[in-house]
Design a protein that fits this description.
The protein is an all-alpha fold. The chain has one domain (2-47). 76% of the residues lie in helices and 0% in strands. The chain has 3 helices and no strands. The longest helix has 23 residues, at 2-24.
Amino acid sequence: MANGLIASYRNWLKFRETYNELNRLSNRELDDLGIRRGDISRVAKQAVAY
């Protein structure tokens, strides 16, 4: 059970890191990546396979 909690916590940290990094980008930079600002949460979730 502890391993599952640790894995969940690590996934959450990776999600937050990805979300924050994408959120710091300008709309132009996001557009260059093919991401809309409203898609940031979805993209961050995909990064950790939520």
